[in-house]
Structure formats: structure tokens, C-alpha cells
Amino acid sequence: MWIAALLACRAEPASDAPGPEPLDLPADPSTPGVPVGVRTESWQGRTLEVWYPASDAAVGVGESVDFAAFVPASVTDLLGPVTFPLIPTRALRDAPLRLPETPYPVIVFSHGFGGTRLQSVDLTTHLASRGYVVVATDHVGRSMTELLPCLFTPPAAGCDLSGFGADPGTVDAPLLADWAAAGGADGWLTGVIDPTALGLTGHSAGGGTTTSVGEVDARFRALLPMAGGGPVSRDVPELMLIGGCDGIVPAAGLVAAVDASPSADRLTLPAAGHLAFSDLCALHFDEVYDTYLAPRDDLNALIADSLLALGLDGCPAATPAPEVCAEGAYLDLDRSAQIVRDYATRFFDATLRGGAPVPGDLYPEATLATAD
After folding, report:
1. To the nearest whole number, what is the mean pLDDT of the chain?
2. Range of the domain at 195
3. Could you give the C-alpha distances from 369 to 162, 241, 359, 372, in angstroms and in order?
4. Structural domains in the chain (count)
């Protein structure tokens, strides 16, 4: 009898065991929702960054991203310590996970040339605050870590421009889909995420990854390429974000790619430059160039000038070229960030959660054109 009673007691759940926490999200999709956690983990030999909805018990100040961590030793050996402005985020390192009432959809993010998995934390943390788990990795051959050593003649150790040829994201994005199917690197998200509700987004070359992978990998049910990408013939929802003042990836080519895609819509921000869809303007590449690179006589001017042009397109330190853009100045970055947050949230809510269709005419600075 006492054994049965003991077993019964052991079967009772602990009274303080955490239960599901409702999202209770603000009605405005551009407004952050619940607290956000962030975790770095390894998967199949790759370093992943994971943003996720955190429990209301998570308190504290969000961590800041320091891009100096992506500068390899071969470069600091030449330049000395390199500093960048810190980018604040709302994410709390290793915060307790918010248990969902229904499993969270998953968004895979792909960065562009010279970027990193942390280049768009305003968007990745925002989506996590709205009830998504977001995961990203660094694409070898097109990340900042491999491109910086190529700025010198001869190149420093670790220079790798292979990403200008074969797209490394076409390997990495499916790998991250496998990660979602496994419930995270150690199963910590098993039952918490819905690996069948899988979205893919990316910036610049990551937009190309988004459409290339989205064309062939049916696990991805929604595609959000930004400032890059090609046509997609597969019948999958797509919303391409385009900058009308983009001097790196011209708007006309992206419009043509969308028009050749039967299920694609496009959102154009006429005054936005290339980096308006990322956080990279906050790094002030012009100041970094003037401080560390301009004085050197071993600089590879061709590569350095190309990366400087990329690093300033859409930023306040630069002016759009008249032949590219009729606007006299780029769109304010706080405004473009709000528009990106709003439309990205609405798009993934509509496609992965069965929410309302994405409306047009939300902002005078943006125009939505639908496949219909």
C-alpha cells in the first residue's frame, strides 16, 4: 500500500513546474512583444545563433553585439585591436524559454557578403518577441571573418572569397532546417517548435540564398528575401523587400525576378538603400575605413573600395547616386526598420500562422504590389 502511495506522489507534477505562457502580443506588428532570449550553440560543426521567446521571468538589459568578435587574428595582427560601435539588442543571454500554448514557427536567416549571423538583430530579435524561433549561422566564404583578410596585398591568412562563386547558403539553410527538425542542437526545442512551419529570410546575397533554397526545398513554406534574390517558380508564398535607391542590387532586376515568380509579392521602399534591411549602417564603415585602412600602403584598393561602397549604401554617411535614385537622401533608418519589422511580422503571421493577408498602404514610404 505504501509503495502505491509513494508512486502516486512521485507521479504528481511539481507545484512550481512552469506552464505555458500566453504571448499577449501588441496589436501593432512593428511593436516588440514578449521578452527575448538568445543562445549560441553548435550543430554539425557550425556555430548557430538562436533567438527565442523568453519567459516573463527573464529580466535584465539585453546584450549588445560587438562585431570586433568577427575580426580574425590575422587582421588584428596587422591593424591592432579593431573596435566597432556596439549594437544594442533586446535579447537576454540564455534567458529561460517561454513555453508556448502552441508550438512556435521557425525562421531561418541568411546574411549577405561581409555580414554575419548577427547583422540583422533588430529583425531577428523582433520576430522572436512576436512568437518565432529564429536561427542563423555564418556562411563560410562570404562572412566578415573571411572577407576582412582579403583587404590586404598579399591577403592575410584566412582570406576566402569562395562565396562569390558557389552560394554557401544553399548548404547552410537546409542544414538549419535539419536543426529545427531535431528540436535544436540538444533537443531543447522538441515540442516547443513546429518544424513544419518553417520560413526563410535573408539579406542581399542572403536574399539570393532565400530564393535559391526556396525554389527547391519544400520544407520552407514562406520566403522573405530582402535586397536580393531571383525568380521562384515553386508555388510558395514570397514577399521580396526592395530598396528603390539600392546601388548594390538594382531594384529593376529584383522587380523582374518577382514578376517572373507566380506566387511572389514585392514591397518597395523607394528611398531605401541596400543596407536599410540590416543593422550594418550602425557600424560606421566609413569611420572604420578612415581609421584603420586608409593609411596603409598594403591595401587592396579594388576590394577595399568595393566593400566600402557596400558598407555605406543606404547609410546616413552616404548620398544616393542620382543615376540610381531620384531621392536626394536615403530613407531614415529608424523608419525603414519599423517598416521591415511590420511587414516581416505580418507576412510570416499570414503564411505560417494562418493570419490575415498582408495589407498594402500601411506606410507612405512603401508600396506593396501583389501577384494578384
Report:
1. 94
2. 25-369
3. 35, 11, 10, 8
4. 1
